[in-house]
Amino acid sequence: MDGGTENLHVYGTSRSYTAPAVEAWGKTPVALKDIPHSISVITQQRMEDSNMLTMTDAMRQINGIRVLPASTANSNFYSRGYQLTTSIDGTPNAAGTLNNASFDLSMYDRIEVMRGSAGLLQGAGGAGGVVNQVTKKPGKEFAAGGNATVGSFNNYRADMDLTVPLNRSKTLRFRTADLFQDNDYFYKYSHNRSWQAYGVLEWDITPSTTFLVSHAAQKQNIDAPYYGLPVTTTRTLWYGGRDANPTPPWGYSDYMTQQTIASLTQKLWGDWTVTARGTFYDQSYNTSYNSPDTPPNVRTGLTSYVDGGTFPNRGTNTSRSADVYATGSFRLLHRTHHLLLGFNYNSYNTHVGYGAVTSDTEYSDVSINNTAVVKAPPAGSITYNAADGAEGTDDNAYQWGFYGQLRLEVTRHLSLILGGRVSRFSEKTRDASPSPEGPWKTTANIHGQLTPYLGTVYQITPNLSWYASYASIFTPSVGRLTYNREGLTPQQGNQVETGFKGEYFHGRLNFSTALFRMESVNQPVQDPDHTSFYITTGPIRRQGWEAQVDGQIIPGLDVSIGYTYLDTKVSNPKVSDFGGVFSPRHMFKSWVHYNAQQGRLKGLSFGVGLDAYSNLRGSYATTVQGGYMTLDSVIGYRFNKHLKLQLNTYNLTNRYYYERASGVWQFNFPAAPRSFMATLRGSY
């Protein structure tokens, strides 16, 4: 390990499937082979070849990640059986844990995913790891690009990306990434019309001081929002038509999301820098839909609806984050060592009002494949008046903590990493408008929570390293989640991991293998007796291994291949099928892409992706999705350096399978059938 590692830059990786360094682990760029943790990166080139448009698209392609759709607007992400936390440019971001509508992928330069406990920099968070969303920054040279996309299900999309220096000295730079999309879905009735605008301004105030401010805004209007299918009368999955949508056409879900980031970076002496960053997130939403009152008949698909089953709700989600840290190296005993010291703060507030429905209309013998016969409740029958039974809640939580990471170069080939964080976490809830305002009730109050970290990396050769690490995490559960309307005991856990990492062809190809073991207590799971609420488990042990390779094997041939094996053991007999709900035992993901370099085929490109999963368990022994395999492909042609046309195909074999099976009345999601997307890409 030499001091040169800290000078790595992760920018300019857009034409590769891997990055020379990432920032998710230590706030500054560190080579993948020097990090004692499992990490994957989705680069711009990988996004482009697979035509990824959303965070869900990207996470589906990352090794070891299980995607659990939650609605038309958002998904939840799991690794090694635990939920992931999000961060923005390395700053913890509570908004990513609120089940919110997520921003489109167009505003991000790359996605870094660190699997496993990440409490060192995050404090409270998901034990599955952290998804670091790295936003686009301005370049010093003018560049412009845009895409026009047409796809299955009436999918029309246009986006553009422009970066430009604003003065002759190029100390003031601007970048914008904007899009408009109008599309249907494979399930009936649903329609989306959305736009997103992102702008970022970067100013070198002095040669050693840089200020950056960005703002993103997204508007989504979704007709007939989709939350998955109910189980049948025999508590089995519905296979009578994957395009069924329990939400009638009049349902809606509207979101307005805004996020502002401001940062100031000051270079000190040598390679020392200090950075202060603030993130401000605000979202408002308004939703109303109806869902079945009885499970659909397993043979006929007939169910019933009542107006009282309508779910009108509206609310706001806000998050405020601050992060101040210093990084740099120092010499001691003729060795170069690296130090990170910091403090971060994160708060989030949610308010939700649940409307009441005064109408009592009933609909019997409704086919789950034709819910358009269910009409909206009469005008005036949906009310947000407390006297009619409308309710509301406020939830307020915050955490702050001091953290540090010391990377000691013990010998020329051996480094030792010592780290830790001391955190304070508090949460309180209350009844709020339209309910009569009630007193605040504390649901979590954690003082001095220590999350230690210990790691080591040994350089076997200049290209190959061995590593081992110990990490811990704690995860408070937000909200009144139990049947008794109480908070859940915070989840706590730790992880040990060891493996090998290799970097070849000057960083163009990276591979890694890992063995891991995770132990935790108090993980939230669905209450089998009250399925809208949660209970906590006893001790859980998860262990397994994974391997991945990303990058360029030969000129023009890029690959991304990964395999994960996970074994779960839980002590609570009430949740014996718990393991496969969040992560299957086997996951294999692969993507191989080739660009013809010369000859008559020059300009032609084609790729294929094969993913395979073992059984996915649901909430019941009768809701099991058997093992399955899917196939995606792409073929493209580059006319010149400015223009390219490509055609992506998804689920090429038209496999009928469930991507998620975990609920009684919803959260059972069939995957989309075969679909196509043609994209014309231009750049200058």
Structure summarized in a few sentences:
This protein has four helices and 41 strands.
How would you explain this protein's 3D organization?
The chain has 4 helices and 41 strands. It starts with 20 loop residues before the first strand and ends with a strand. With 684 residues, it is mainly β. Helix content is 3%, strand content 57%. It has a 22-stranded antiparallel beta barrel. Strands 3, 4, 5, 6, 7, 8 and 9 form a 7-stranded mixed beta sheet that branches. A two-stranded antiparallel ribbon has the order 1-2.
Q: In percent, how much strand structure appears in the residues? A: over 45%
Q: Estimate percent helicity.
A: under 10%
Poorly predicted residue ranges: 1-13
End-to-end gap: 39 Å
Question: If you compute it from the alpha carbons, what radius of gyration comes out, rounded to the nearest whole angstrom?
Answer: 25 Å
Largest sheet: 22 strands, antiparallel, barrel
The DSSP helix count reads 4
| Large-scale geometry | globular
Mean pLDDT: 89
Secondary structural class: mainly beta
Instruction: Tell me how many strands there are.
Output: 41
